[in-house]
């Protein structure tokens, strides 16, 4: 599979016929997508592609091997199976598993067109790189080149550290553009700007003292040296990765790899932001296209079996496919019958509400609009209703310390919504920001965890801090709450320490070791 | 497996091996691994291979689910071990179990302890080769053609060249599709070995001590078996009298009463005389006790070891497992013999954590 990206671009004839048919239906329903290329692969290949996050040309790293092992085991033991895989790119690439039944292939194709429409039209994908296939391959080439030049182990362990912090990005910055063209860095510039000399006028040797007087040169040098000693950044910086790229004392190849990891993290961000919607949308369309157009009566049982398998919940856990498709259907129904707006909301009579139907028929139009402008958080925030929660038996659950397990916490709408939104906020991960890159006026890095009511897991936080310290090369601190008390976790390159903030100031702190 | 993922996969396995190697004592002293060696695979959970990230702890964590159940009802399994259960069907951060073959595990043991390879005595130069059909070639006699692989390749080729017709699924392998079984020669040492385990089962040996013996002898077994073509094991238990038992009885017997170690050594000698003549067998004897012995018996033990056993065995290992009851003196009494006999190795095993060191004591002689 080495150089060529693609396993087999030629669909067998019978699948090509199917593809054309389903694509035509998708267009008929108003779906709008980039050209979509299907590849037929076997289970091993599909697991491999999935292990690389959908990109067979991704850079080499052991963690993809680990992913593969997990996927392969799941498949071999019959626990899980990847049916489809589709890549946000122009053209879209989608993979079909060779050994699937024909009815499964139909379903997957219909599902894929739903995703492709979503990629092209949803606002949160608008800024993604549509030539990612090419870029990923370029990233891989660069990293392989670095491995050859600087040693495989060295590069690999640096990637380990990058991956450890690859979620410390500002997921909204792509749309908001907080800092202009911030993704351009010049890695070829060899000199470190901090030490750079002020510009000199050209001069003959014997004239130099007059043309570039020493006095002026040192005056000009002064502010340059001063600059990094000031406290920075001005505002807490959510894009920790960018901050490191700009300010950490990294070597050029390290800076480049970190920026590659960052670019890929941003590319995958909208996928995470819209998982429920995207899967719901694709499921909505496979079910619509299949049941209304494509399905033959002989295939009904297999289809129903597969469809219900995809929608199944296990162990009470929420399935994004299921939640998404049901919410889209609910919205369609509500806008078809006019069950929205103040008149409906204010109605107190349950019986009237149950029979409410204004015959507006706006449902289809509404869901197309929803898929364009929402992400999972705004989707849930806007369209989750108490009726919906009740009908689908939703509940919130929480970890119970004394029982040492998760217990059902509540069936109240507000609690459910709160839990759901919290688990989606920043992908259910803690917000970490850079507060100061010159902490204690000693060039130490101070980060802050914006505590939202949940403590960090301490052991992994320490290990992550150590990885940050490696990049910053000076002591690194993280402000957080531990058991409700403001605490400062620190790593100075040798020792970890945790202390309470407040009754402990710099003076009392144990002196740092000399590096 | 594609070449690219194969490479990343091997890299991952290497890291796993490294992790296991550095935490070996933890894995070695875990008893249940022995029970799970079904089909020669050892399954090892390794949480530490995870790449660390900032994430939430369990406290106050939770999420949303659906289904029946009252408030306060426990949720079924499936939660993320390390944090909040993710919305949806993500694989989550569960602990990865890695399979190693027992062979690999023993290999790691050897590397970690820097164990020398055992050199069989006597017939050490006799090595035969054995052919194993475990590889594939492009050429070969038709009788060795690998039917399944050949057809699979043919099918792949036809699908990719668009000549496969699912309505009329005819598959005709052509020359380049054909695959043949092939063999590799693996050298097989001819030497045979006998391992004789002896254990004190008197009242002072508790279950905990026996667990230690069981784990340690398992790894001793595995290492020795790597080096010989045929290995036989015999088990002797003793209190004031000794008898030969099967493996199960060996680990599950508990007697009360006094201890007379010489009876076990006597029986061991008898086994060597009758069953494992040293001219044709490499003999490994291991004796585990808590070091408590009937005082008058000690000269007899020394005599047996010095005259009858040590001159005839490759290795005699005495492992003294600390027990709350035993006096633990025996190791000193036979200690003086180890100056005269290189092949007598003494080791103290105070607890499970010491098993690894003890294995090293026994096996680093390379005998």
TrEMBL record, chain A:
Domain called SpoVR protein-like N-terminal: residue spans: 14-428
Lineage top rank: taxon: Bacteria
InterPro entries: Spore_V_R, SpoVR-like_C, SpoVR_N
Occurrences of domain SpoVR-like C-terminal (ranges): 430-481
UniProt biased composition (Basic and acidic residues): 214-225, 505-515
Region (Disordered): 214-234, 493-515
Pfam family membership, one: SpoVR
UniProt organism field: Telmatocola sphagniphila
Name used for this protein in its record: SpoVR family protein
From TrEMBL, chain B:
Superkingdom: Bacteria
Pfam families assigned: DUF444 (PF04285)
Name of the protein in question: DUF444 family protein
